[in-house]
Write a structure and sequence with these properties.
Radius of gyration: 19 Å
Order of helices and strands: EHEHEHEEEEHHEHEHH
Strand content: 5-15%
CATH class of the largest domain: Alpha Beta
Number of domains: 2
Number of helices: 8
CATH architecture of the largest domain: 3-Layer(aba) Sandwich
Shape: elongated
Structural class: alpha/beta
Strand order of the largest sheet: 3-9-8-7-6
Number of strands: 9
Distance between the termini: 28 Å
Largest sheet: 5 strands, mixed
Length: 236
């Protein structure tokens, strides 16, 4: 028996790996139980060389019973106590609030001004403290960053402050895709996120190409403001 949460495919390498994994699982009679925000036919939609992934979709439909849950409600978003840690718009007042958040969170800990070395590369930082890091959005999501960078940052810090989260369109998918990966890693490790942004989470993405991926990001951003999430212990 194998159980997978949030089955999703968003690049060619993952598509190839998952295709081979599914073939081996079903050949060996392994029972697969998985959840997904996307029906099988919608997996890896418009992806590069998607034709190579179609046999995997056929396997899922042949060897799995596909059930659609009857509710359209995202239960993570119900009865959440919203904390004032997502500041809109991006202005001097919001930046001052981030500075105050950093001061309170860092306490009497050492404060460093300068870059953070991650996987052998320096990332410009506004401020670095004891388990707290403050970056500009541009530094984290508009340069050559990888999921491995975000994993290291999320592992070493219980709170991340992020200045200047913009709205996104289809003109460029690089920055929003990196932001999706960043939020995933922060969420998986129960890292607190405090940010200034051009819009509330529901209004950040105005494009179509990453619409499905970003729906999960919006859900997570909202949950990350809840008292329940903020009470979680950091998981390095």
């Amino acid at each position: 028996l194998m159980m997978l949460d949030e089955f999703f495919v968003n690049d060619a390498a993952d598509a190839l790996i998952l295709s081979r994994l599914l073939e081996q699982l079903f050949d060996r009679g392994v029972t697969l139980v998985t959840t997904s925000n996307v029906a099988p036919q919608g997996l890896y939609a418009n992806g590069l060389q998607r034709a190579r992934f179609l046999p995997a979709i056929a396997l899922i439909e042949k060897d799995c019973v596909v059930l659609r849950l009857g509710s359209d409600t995202d239960f993570r978003l119900r009865q959440l106590s919203q904390a004032d840690i997502w500041h809109v718009p991006i202005d001097a007042e919001g930046e001052a609030q981030l500075a105050e958040h950093f001061r309170v969170l860092n306490g009497i800990g050492t404060c460093q001004r300068g870059p953070l070395s991650v996987n052998g590369r320096d990332i410009p930082a506004r401020a670095l403290g004891e388990g707290v890091a403050w970056f500009d959005f541009e530094a984290l999501c508009e340069g050559p960053r990888s999921a491995a960078d975000y994993i290291e940052i999320a592992s070493e810090h219980h709170t991340l402050l992020l200045s200047g989260v913009p709205t996104f369109s289809d003109e460029s998918t690089d920055a929003p895709r990196r932001f999706i990966h960043l939020v995933d890693e922060l969420y998986d490790r129960s890292v607190n996120l405090v940010a200034t942004a051009a819009a509330q989470p529901q209004g950040l993405y105005k494009g179509f190409k990453l619409r499905i991926e970003f729906e999960r990001t919006v859900s997570r951003l909202i949950e990350m403001r809840s008292a329940e999430y903020l009470a979680r212990a950091h998981r390095p």
